[in-house]
Amino acid sequence: MAVVGVLALQGSFNEHIAALKRLGVKGVEVRKPEQLQTISSLIIPGGESTTMAKLAEFHNLFPALREFVQMGKPVWGTCAGLIFLANKAVGQKEGGQELVGGLDCTVHRNYFGSQIQSFEAELLVPELASREGGPETFPGVFIRAPAVLEVGPEVEVLADYPIPSNKVLYSSSAVEIQEENAVPEKKVIVAIRQGNLLGTAFHPELTADTRWHSYFLKMAHGYGEGTSNTTVAVSGVDLSSDKQTRYDLPIFR
Question: Which residues does the entry assign to the active site, renumbered to this chain (predicted)?
């Protein structure tokens, strides 16, 4: 059975492990640098990114995490995990936070506002649907979510989100209420891939749709086989839109 590491410092690591289990894959909690030597792929979950960074620093995890990424091993960051993997982050608290890096992108740490601005949105995901089947959209759960503002030439954009005309890019303030007649003028990136690194600004682990987890498992299997196109069998699940609103959970960023 395949084993996937899930960074378990804080945040939604249990939800990721449960999603992996639904696909017949074992997820193991990772808290110490030496545990990274026993896995070949890693999920960095959503949570409070500053708290996660402080805990990672306390456990001296950053050097080991950077080495894990630099070795080309598959890593998926969701929400706060996306911030960890970004080469650059803006909108941070005073003093900022340490990053693992690897994804050639700039992330706005708290682009969509505070906890009360959390929301769900149907995202167009043509690449995911092409590889994993199912609907052309995915129920994105955004909880104090970041967004990708810029990407490098090697980064593939997998999903974006239309920004209302009254939303100011690069603003760290809460999202303004969109008027009914407002016309979206720009889009912000919410899912990217660069080689064996995957990043999503939303929380797939809080939905019944496991296609992002299946997508990542195939990345991980491809790494083990020396190719990113190898198919790995996973058990089927109902991909219907069974949304699970979890906005009241304070652990997510």
Answer: 79 (nucleophile), 203 (charge relay system), 205 (charge relay system)
79 is catalytic: yes
203 catalytic, yes or no? yes
Catalytic status, residue 29 = no
> Residues 79, 108, 132, 213: which is the catalytic one?
79
Q: Which of 15, 120, 132, 205 is catalytic?
A: 205
Instruction: Give CA angle at 149 (220, 98), nearest 5°.
Output: 65
Structural contact between residues 136 and 171, judged by C-beta atoms closer than 8 angstroms: no
Tens-digit pLDDT string for the chain (253 aa): 678 999 999 999 999 999 999 999 999 999 999 999 999 999 999 988 888 999 999 999 999 999 999 999 999 999 999 999 999 999 866 656 799 999 999 999 989 887 788 899 999 999 999 999 999 999 999 999 999 999 999 999 999 999 865 555 444 433 333 333 444 458 999 999 999 999 999 999 999 999 999 999 999 887 755 433 333 333 333 333 333 333 333 344 4
Q: Considering only CA atoms, which of 15, 20, 18, 19 is closest in space to residue 4?
A: 20
Catalytic entry in 16, 105, 132, 203: 203
**Per-residue tokens: 158:** 């997998």
